[in-house]
Design brief:
Layout: H1 4-11, H2 34-38, E1 55-60, H3 70-79, E2 85-90, H4 91-101, H5 107-110, H6 116-130, E3 133-136, E4 140-142, E5 157-161, H7 165-186, E6 197-204, H8 210-221, H9 227-231, H10 235-238, H11 241-254, E7 261-264, H12 266-269, E8 286-288, H13 300-325, H14 330-333, H15 336-339
Parallel strand pairs: 1-2, 1-3, 5-7
Antiparallel strand pairs: 3-6, 4-8, 5-6
Amino acid sequence: MWRGTARTMIALGIASGFVAAAGSHPAGGRTITPDQLAALSPDKIGTLPNGMPKILHQTWREETLLPKHQPFFDSWERCLPKDWIHVLWTDADANAFIEASAPYWLVPTLRLYHHPIQLVDMFRYVLMSRIGGVYSDLDNECFDTPDFSRFSAVCEVYLAETCCNSSNLDQEGRMEASLQKWERMTSRPRTAQPAGSQNSLLASKPGHPFWLWVMALAIENGPRVNFFQAFVQPIHSTVGVDLISMAHYQFASSEKQGDSVCLLPALDWHGMEKDGWVSDHKPRYVKHHGTHVWKSSGKTVEKVVIGILKWIVLPVGCMVALVRSGKVELRWFRRIPVMLGF
């Protein structure tokens, strides 16, 4: 839980500028904690012309990083100007921030999540809404100071573009049902395929309405209180890349501020995988190495439930239906163990 003034300030989304002394944080460099961020004077924070604060947020389970992530983490120390703040949030920090800052109407959905990565993903959306700045996954390597001035002056939110060809095709297939549902609800024909985006790199001014749209769609796509959805919760659609891509498509086609959400081109802000558009391309600003640590988190329960449904519940249900219909006699099924050699 937050302590005293720190909790109050973070809950209100107040951030301020600070450069920590070297070695003051286990992660190294000028990194500070969320408590240190909250304790600073708001008038010290630098901002970009579009109102985005000069704060880089990253998150990990604890203050000590994995060895494979440390070089990528340190790369931001080298390429960010001295007036930027670098904050590392632990899971405990993120959970406390969500508790204090998430909209009340989002809380019931948050409580139904059972994958740890779901809360981590929702944390970054609430963070962008309340404090703003830049959020980066730990497997992003920075090569040069991110230059947001190269974009249109109306841009106030930035999303990383999906890379690469294979990822785009997979995402289009998963999102088709959501697109058809949106078309039925709005009676609007599809004018173009939604641009694929992901949440590994985000940037925003605080208070932008896009993030409330993302949270509202998370409720719509979220788990319900029934046996199947309580356990089987696809990460892509409940909190991940499909959610934010669909939110971008809906927001851009419905809101006057739709053009204020801009994509960071993968060529310069993500890099290309070996099976993508350009092999071994070094991006100008950021390269996403794709360590996929999140995939090892919280998948066991879902796999067990799907296995039970697929190999036990479904076959037994089909057998019962066939017997009750009179088309198959029960004694026929007794031969199955003998046929399988049992």
